[in-house]
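W.,

You were right to be curious about this one. When I first looked at the sequence I had no strong expectations either way, so I just let the prediction run and decided to look at it fresh. Below is the sequence, 122 residues in total, followed by the output.
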Amino acid sequence: MRLFLLSFLLTSAAVVVAGDNASLSGKWQIQYSIADREGKLGCTFTQKDSELTGTCTSDRGDLATTGKVEGKNVTWTYKTDSEGGPVTVVYKGIVEADGKIAGTIAAVEFGVEGEFKATSSK
């Protein structure tokens, strides 16, 4: 009985750890609101260990992204042009229990922040 209980506890722990480090690889739909503007992006991410790379597609074209995944925390960044100058856009979010990501979006050079939600379309 003890051996069965120990096996059950170890298996349960492995499932919890796997859930905390779920891969974000695949396609995602991002909805954001920042500086009185709302929009949508389609992103495709590839995760290798804690490194996140990919491409987000906007009305300005494809934007190369880089980021990190640390447990349930995820960040990614891309650079774009706006109003004649470069803009660094930073997303910081938390993977929620339902697998969606929610957090903040910041346009660094403009000093503005907003919110975003991401839904997997795998």
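Here's what jumped out at me. Confidence is low (pLDDT under 50) at residues 1-19. And, maybe more interesting for your project: DSSP finds one helix and eight strands in the chain.

Coffee later to discuss?

I.
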